[in-house]
Known about the structure:
- The protein folds into 2 domains: 1-33; 34-83, no CATH class.
- By secondary structure, it is mostly helical.
- It is built from 4 helices and no strands.
- Helix content is 43%, strand content 0%.
- It has helices spanning 3-18, 52-57, 64-73, 77-80.
Amino acid sequence: MSDNLSQLSFENLVRRVRACTLCADALPHEPRPVIQIAESARILVVGQAPGRRVHETGLPFNDPSGDRLRQWMGITRDTFYDE
Length: 83
């Protein structure tokens, strides 16, 4: 796959994830997928049901659960959010 096609596919994926409303009927509010993504990422961490602070800031795992996750992973906040 060419670099241009790869970039377009990645950008399309990001757009589709951000616009996802599959769980709309199960939520008390409008769905708002919260993601931070980079093509260079070496791992993918996915969470379910982000809390109020995450929705307010738009930063995934920006709450006590994220603090615990980073502690378990043995990495700093800066490393976790490095793009």
